[in-house]
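Translate sequence into structure tokens.
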Amino acid sequence: MAVVGAGVVGSATALALARRGLAVALLEALPEPGLEASGTNSGILHTGFDSPPGKLETKLILRSAALRPPLMAQLGVPVARCGGLVRPRDEQQLEVVSALAQNARANGVEASLRDDGSLEVPGESVTDPVAYTLALAAAAQRHGARLRTAFRVAALGQENGGLKVVAAGGERLRCRMVVNCAGLRADEVARLAGEESFEIYPRKGEFLVMRPPDGERLEQILLPVPTKRTKGVLVFPTVGGETIAGPTAVDQEDKDDWSVRPQAREEILPGATALWKPLERAELVAAYAGLRPAGRGVNYLIARSTGSPSLINVAAIRSTGLTASLGVAEHVCSLVERAGVQLGAEQPLIPGPAPRAAGPWWRRTAELHAA
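Result follows.
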């Protein structure tokens, strides 16, 4: 079994399959896991209070919320359970927030309306997304998975009832099935197997990392009232005590453009300071951009390929991928079983030290993709 892409979804999937007794190769095109979308997001672990009830994305977010706490504790990944707050500004927004409260109840998520109409969601939390991804990949290896970095898949071909995977460098791998968790490149990997039913484009989200003035510390995730197009600019704490504001939402075509646009600051700060006034006096420490793998007309495409029965596509996993990764991995295991691959009972997690990237995750992110 091969999993293409060692982002948070691919690493979680490799761990889930390895814990069920499969021999797994985790194939990453870059030098280490979590260098693209998985390491350039907000680090927020959402509860699903605002997700549409009944959708696959929502189901996997809610399932992940049940699976995540014990696993995070065992992996030693930092989590700040700070809660979230949505505060309306006018009568129209009061109606939207009231609808969000009803939505949270429909999803079984704890949320309560304050007297001023604000919605408090105590289950919202933040983590270090790089540490989480690296910890999942390391745990997968402890369960026997082989991590192959600098392995950019260049060809897929049917062979003996399975797939032959060929890297750009010429390495070859034969496996019964391939799980495509290639993020921004998921459509490109699918096309190698004759699947052309979906297309991935990058949606850029830019963030500003701020150091609050002395004596001021943000204790909650502050969320604006969402619109039909976007959830808007958030303000949230990091596990290290900084404050981050963002993201923007800029659709683009270039999957390699990780630059922060000059106008990003003026697009972010007005909405951010409206949510938390101390940002007017905060020091700008860094800025970074994440590229979310958005699908054209499709979201959370998790299914066996129409081009090859030996390929499972996990594509268009957008901004909630960090949150939903464990549920996605469990769902993929069920698809693998339906494809006729026998899985064993889930093994207890093998303990081990959690790898740590040097310095804060957001600094690694900002420096890695600096223009």
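Note: Helices lie at 8-19, 56-75, 91-106, 129-142, 186-192, 264-275, 321-338, 361-368.
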